[in-house]
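Reminder to self: C-alpha cells first, then the designed residues, so the page reads top to bottom the way the pipeline ran.
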C-alpha cells in the first residue's frame, strides 16, 4: 500500500489547477458518540493528507436538507416526517424490545444537496434511518459504507448477541414482541438488499464484524473488507496521574483496574460481569474505577471501595483516567471495535478482553494485553491477574500497547488506507471520471 496521499483530481471545467479529492461523509449519529468520533477522526486524518473532506452529522445540518435522491424526489418536509416516524417507532420498540435500538423502516433516499460535486460519498452510522444505502448507491457517486455495528445487515438489532438469524431470514426474530409483528424485521432486512449495492464498498472496523457481514443474507456476495477504526493518538497518550490519585483517594503504588463505556446499560456491554470478576481480584493495594452513563443497577451493587466516576465528557478527563489504569477491562460479549479499549491502549494501559469479538483486533494477546475465551469470567479474572502481577502499565505490555496503537490506529494511518480504497474505486470503469 502506498504511503503517499491520493494525488489531486482535475475537476470538471478546470483548466489550470487541480482540485483535491472531494469526500463527503454522512453520519446519522451525533458527533459526540462512538461512531461519530471515529468518523470525525477519519475526516481529520483525510484533511491532514490533503483531501477536501467534509462531514455531516445528524441534527440541523442533515434534518434541514435531507431529501430522497433520483427521480420522483419528494420535498425535504416529507423526509423530516419520515425521520420523525422512524424515531417514534424506535422509541416504542425500545419500550418492548431492549435489543432493537433502531428499527427505522422509513429510511430516506439520500441528501443530494450535501453530496453535489463529491468524488466519493462515505456513509458511516446510518442506524437511525437517515439514509437508504441502496438509494445512495444508485445516485451515481462512488459509495463507501463503514459498518460500525451489525444493524445494516440484520432485521433491526445493532448486535444479535448470538441469535444468528441475520444469516437467513429475520422473520422468526425472537426479540420482537407485541405490538411489533416479526414481519417488521423481515421488511427492514429485505429493504437493505438491492442490486445497486454490489457497487458499494463496505468496510468493517474489525475482522469480527467483517466476517459476520459476509455471512449475512443482506451482504452475502458484496464487497466487504476491514479497515480499523481511527483514534486520535494526539488526544490519547499517557499523562501524570498524581493529581487524580489524590482527588480519588487512591494511594501512590496502588494498582488500578479501569472499565467503562459511553452507555453502561447496553446489554452487549456485559457490565454486570464486572462484579464477579472483581470479587476474584479485590485485595488491599488494588482499586477498581468505573465510568460511563447509566448503570444504576450496577452502581447499587458495587462494593464501597469501588470508585464510580459517572460520565466523562472530555478527552482530557478520559485521558487521565486511562493513564491511571494498570489494566483496562472490556467485558463486552459483542463489539464492532472497542473504541474505549483502543483509547486506553493509546494511553499505555494493557487491555483485557474476550476473544471472538471486535476488541480482539485491538489486543495482541500476551504482548499488548490479554484475551480470554468469550463469556468466561473466570478466565478473564485470571488474565487480569496475570497483567497485574506482571506490573500492569509499567510492564512491557503497557509500552507496547501505545506503540501498537500508533502503528495501526492513528488517524493518518487509517486515512491512508481509505485513500487507497477511494483510488481503487475511482480507477474502476464505473467510477466517476474527472474531466
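Designed residues (435 positions):
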Amino acid at each position: 500500500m502506498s504511503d503517499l496521499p491520493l494525488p489531486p483530481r482535475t475537476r470538471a471545467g478546470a483548466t489550470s489547477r487541480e482540485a483535491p479529492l472531494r469526500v463527503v461523509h454522512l453520519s446519522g449519529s451525533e458527533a459526540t458518540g462512538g461512531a461519530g468520533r471515529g468518523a470525525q477522526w477519519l475526516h481529520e486524518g483525510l484533511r491532514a493528507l490533503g483531501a477536501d473532506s467534509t462531514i455531516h452529522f445528524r441534527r440541523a445540518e442533515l434534518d434541514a436538507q435531507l431529501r430522497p435522491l433520483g427521480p420522483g424526489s419528494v420535498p425535504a418536509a416529507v423526509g423530516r416526517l419520515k425521520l420523525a416516524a422512524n424515531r417514534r417507532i424506535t422509541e416504542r420498540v425500545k419500550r418492548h424490545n431492549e435489543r432493537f435500538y433502531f428499527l427505522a423502516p422509513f429510511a430516506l433516499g439520500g441528501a443530494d444537496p450535501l453530496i453535489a460535486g463529491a468524488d466519493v460519498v462515505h456513509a458511516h452510522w446510518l442506524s437511525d434511518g437517515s439514509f437508504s444505502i441502496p438509494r445512495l448507491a444508485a445516485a451515481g457517486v462512488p459509495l463507501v459504507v463503514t459498518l460500525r455495528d451489525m444493524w445494516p445487515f440484520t432485521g433491526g438489532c445493532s448486535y444479535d448477541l448470538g441469535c444468528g438469524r441475520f444469516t437467513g431470514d429475520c422473520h422468526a426474530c425472537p426479540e420482537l414482541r407485541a405490538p411489533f409483528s416479526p414481519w417488521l424485521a423481515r421488511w427492514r432486512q429485505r429493504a437493505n438488499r438491492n442490486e445497486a449495492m454490489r457497487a458499494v464498498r463496505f468496510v468493517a472496523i474489525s475482522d469480527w464484524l467483517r466476517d459476520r457481514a459476509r455471512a449475512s443474507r443482506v451482504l452475502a456476495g458484496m464487497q466487504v473488507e476491514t479497515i480499523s477504526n481511527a483514534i486520535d493518538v494526539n488526544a490519547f497518550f499517557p499523562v501524570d496521574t498524581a493529581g487524580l490519585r489524590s482527588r480519588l483517594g487512591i494511594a501512590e503504588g496502588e494498582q488500578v483496574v479501569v472499565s467503562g463505556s459511553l452507555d453502561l446499560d447496553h446489554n452487549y456491554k456485559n457490565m454486570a460481569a464486572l462484579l464477579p470478576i472483581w470479587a476474584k481480584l479485590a485485595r488491599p493495594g488494588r482499586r477498581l474505577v468505573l465510568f460511563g452513563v447509566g448503570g444504576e443497577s450496577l452502581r447499587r451493587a458495587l462494593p464501597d471501595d469501588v470508585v464510580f466516576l459517572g460520565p466523562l465528557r472530555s478527552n482530557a478527563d478520559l485521558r487521565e483516567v486511562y493513564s491511571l489504569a494498570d489494566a483496562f477491562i472490556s467485558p463486552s460479549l459483542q463489539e464492532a471495535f472497542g473504541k474505549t479499549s483502543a483509547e486506553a491502549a493509546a494511553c499505555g494501559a494493557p487491555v483485557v478482553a474476550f476473544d471472538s469479538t471486535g476488541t480482539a483486533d485491538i489486543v495482541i494477546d500476551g504482548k499488548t494485553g490479554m484475551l480470554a475465551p468469550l463469556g468466561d469470567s473466570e478466565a478473564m479474572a485470571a488474565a487480569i491477574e496475570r497483567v497485574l502481577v506482571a506490573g500492569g502499565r509499567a510492564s512491557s505490555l503497557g509500552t507496547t500497547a501505545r506503540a501498537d496503537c500508533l502503528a495501526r490506529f492513528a488517524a493518518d494511518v487509517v486515512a491512508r488506507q481509505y485513500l487507497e480504497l477511494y483510488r481503487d474505486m475511482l480507477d474502476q470503469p464505473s467510477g466517476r471520471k474527472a474531466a
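The longest strand covers residues 255-263.
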